[in-house]
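BUG: 3D viewer hangs when loading the predicted structure for this chain

Environment: internal workstation, default settings.
Expected: structure renders.
Actual: progress bar stalls at 90%.

Input used:
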Amino acid sequence: MVDFLIGTAEDHTSAHGGDFREVPLALLKELLDDGLMEIGELGESGFEAWEEPADQILGKFKRACDACD
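Structure tokens produced before the viewer hung:
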């Protein structure tokens, strides 16, 4: 799902300008704020949601995505 969202954002910003990363980050922030989504990682107990506030989670997520280029 995230891959599709990023691809759609790239297409949109290619046609209209801007930074494609802002589109999925804004949507993810809304989903996190509304409690409709959690971001985390796989740990020893299975999925472990990140417990930081949404802004910190988004920063952590953005850094992880940037590290993957």
